[in-house]
Amino acid sequence: MANDIETCDTEKVLLRLDRILETLSESKGSNQPEGFPKAKDRKVFCDVRCSVISVGEIDTVTQQFEADVFVSFKYFEGKQNKIAANNSEHDGLWDPRVNFLNAVTIQEKERRNDTNVFGKGTIYRYLSLRMNGTFKTPMKLQNFPCDFQVMTIKVSSSWPIDKLQFRRRTNKYGKISDNINIDAFTGCNEWDLQEHVVTEVKQPDLTKDKKVYSTYLIKLHAQRKPLFYVWNVVLPVFCILALSFTSFVIDAENPSDRLSVTVTMLLTAVAFKSAVSSMLPKIPYLTLLDKYVLCNFILQCLMVAQNAVAALCAKENKCPHFDLWSIIVLAFIAIVVNVGFIIAGIILFIKAKRDLGLLTRKYKDERACLDPTHLPHHVNIQENFPPESNKVEDAVRSMV
């Protein structure tokens, strides 16, 4: 009987030793070298969180904008002893190899590596970057100056998508913690920067090396304030067109005097068209402001043609009412064109404001649970945040 008890105790001791050895081997295996992940079937999911600290000038001509951005990357590394994980150095850790695809110039202000250990040695690594740079972004200018622009920061990795894939970081309630500081915006005289950040994972495209890479998009929206262009372009062009009608006060039998007024106004309109073109990049389509200036330019060309025809009619005593009716028709067209463009501009401006308002409301809804006033009474605010959130917030505050 005693022998059976000793045999049972021995088996229990051996079983415990085997478990200890397995734990030690897992701990060693979790210290991934620089080339991590080693396993061919191992894929790293990198959760991304962004904080836009400030936005600088938005240049329409060069289609660029300046931004100071904090981006945090969270990824699961493995399991190991909790004490060993906390004491491990960050120098030899695996690097997500993050790069900004559309950065023209970029300066890395700060780089930080953090570690969080959950439960029984579950390790999450954090790479936090604060970058200040100038980013290239294509602008859609069809509705200029009643437009809004989407300014995109493209984040990618040198690892192919079968090794690393970006994801949007959310808490356990599916809420985001991305944010933007609109108070530090320096282009507020021309733009209205929206208080939301739109993030998404772009559908990857096949590259020249026949590999696919994950791309994460950080989108900012800004609506242009059109009053500068109304007072400095639209109103002067309208006044030039209105002054062109003063040529009809001169008798039709004196075409040289008439033409001197209309041609002078026409050349002034051409100068304004050149001024409008200098405000825009070289684009293969007409903006709303281009169409307005061009329509007024065509009306002035019609006035020049009318002056010539009216002079011929007066010289040969034909169509005595041509001058009067042509003035009425041209004035009616001018009123319709100008009123039509004013209504179109107002509609486009209101529509853009409404669309951006919908995005802002959606963004606030996605962040709702981050505000304690939006939480149900039975929900503990500390439980709403994942354990790493406080660390990331502290990192942002220390960097700013």
From TrEMBL:
UniProt topology in membrane: Multi-pass membrane protein
One of the record's GO molecular function terms: extracellular ligand-gated monoatomic ion channel activity
Annotated InterPro entries: Neur_chan_lig-bd, Neur_chan_lig-bd_sf, Neur_channel, Neuro-gated_channel_TM_sf, Neuro_actylchol_rec, Neurotrans-gated_channel_TM
Subcellular location: Membrane
Coiled-coil annotated residue ranges, if any: none
Residue ranges annotated for the Neurotransmitter-gated ion-channel ligand-binding domain, each copy included: 37-226
Pfam families given in the database record: Neur_chan_LBD (PF02931), Neur_chan_memb (PF02932)
Domain Neurotransmitter-gated ion-channel transmembrane: 234-309
Transmembrane segments: 227-250, 262-280, 292-312, 324-350
Principal localisation: membrane
GO-annotated cellular components: membrane
Keywords noted in UniProt: Membrane, Receptor, Transmembrane, Transmembrane helix
PANTHER family per UniProt: NEUROTRANSMITTER GATED ION CHANNEL
Protein name per its UniProtKB record: Glycine receptor subunit alpha-3
Species for this entry: Holothuria leucospilota (Black long sea cucumber)
